[in-house]
Amino acid sequence: MKLRSNQIKEHFSKGNALPLYILSGDEALLLQECADQLRSEFRKQGFSERERFNVDAGFDWNALLQAGNSMSLFGDRKILEVRHDKPKFDDKAKKALVEYAENPNPDNVLLLIIPKMDKKSQNTKWFQKLETAGAMIQVWPIELNQFPQWVHQRMRGANLEPSRDAVQLLAQRVEGNLLAAAQEVDKLVLLMGEGPVEVSDIENAVADHARYSLYELVDEALKGNCSQATKMLNHLRAGGSEPSVILWAFSNEIRKLAGMSQLINNGMAPARVMQEYRIWDTKKSIIQSALQRIPANGFKHCLLEAARIDRTIKGIGHGNPWDGFNNLILWLSGSIQPGKMALDS
């Protein structure tokens, strides 16, 4: 069966959990919050233990089947949560998932979290067997014209009472980024408490929190303003900003640019590419300039550097993440050819 995300509460109010649930989508925040809601409903029905599986190249699908057939050490009902970062499944995965769907353990529920899956893949026989045994929940992205309304609902849900102009300002500031919008709303509650919110409140809250934002940092690099971006990075570092948060801002933008660059190289018109990626009018000139300045393989170098920074932050790689951020600024701004280090120039 198919469920919409806003039907989850009603679905569980009508009966017991199904053997499996497939959660699919590309919007990280909405996907995470939908998964949180499902886990909450599972816990209400007695699924108190949670076992997680992250699928990689060497993943053993038999481990999932064994976990599904085994009893909990404490006799509790279990949530088997499988995260698959690709919408395509190999034969071993298909066989294991179908086997689970055909012989579910009533003491377990399977939560399969995957990226957006196309209609053709959903209509395959093996996937239809999963849907028949459980429920498919697709999490759709928020369209640009719906984004201010989503921001308004988010603020109201946090017991804020924003003016229309305040909502518009916040929506413009985060440029369609749901995670950033959610963080700004949480920040407003922490700084101001509940109640009315005006444009000046948002401006003051942002100014009090940090002189430079992550979004401005990345934008300045994409504009080619290397010195200004470096100054912003140093300010964020001195202010105690977490490297992981800065990496998220860079990686999110670089992945988007890499995809756009590939589409343009494949012959798609830049205007169409901008539309496909939901680029705001206020940012189109910045993106277009970066795409013209940086070749497609340049973005690949940037993504490799971002991966290296990630390993450094996690303590499994050598180097300093802040040096890596400086490299990204140099490359994105066009000061140095991507792939080269500052000392190579």
Explained architecture:
The structure is a single chain. The longest helix is centred in the C-terminal third of the chain and has 23 residues, at 243-265. With 345 residues, the protein is α/β, with parallel strands linked by helices. The strands form 2 sheets. Strands 1-6-2-5-4-3 form a 6-stranded parallel beta sheet, with helices on both faces. Strands 7-8 form a two-stranded parallel sheet. The protein has 3 domains: 2-139, Rossmann fold (3-Layer(aba) Sandwich), CATH 3.40.50; 144-209, Helicase, Ruva Protein, domain 3 (Orthogonal Bundle); 214-344, Zinc Finger, Delta Prime, domain 3 (Up-down Bundle), CATH 1.20.272.10. Mean pLDDT is 86; it is low at 207-211. The chain starts with a strand and ends in a 12-residue tail after the last helix. Helix content is 59%, strand content 11%.
Q: Can you tag this structure with a few keywords?
A:
17 helices, Rossmann fold, Helicase, Ruva Protein, domain 3, 59% helix, globular, 3 domains, alpha/beta, 8 strands
Beta-strand level of the residues, as a percent range? 5-15%
DSSP summary: helix tally: 17
CATH topology of the largest domain: Rossmann fold
Mean pLDDT: 86
Give, in order, the helices and strands.
EHEHEHEHEHHEHEHHEHHHHHHHH
Tell me the CATH architecture of the largest domain: 3-Layer(aba) Sandwich
| Number of discrete domains | 3
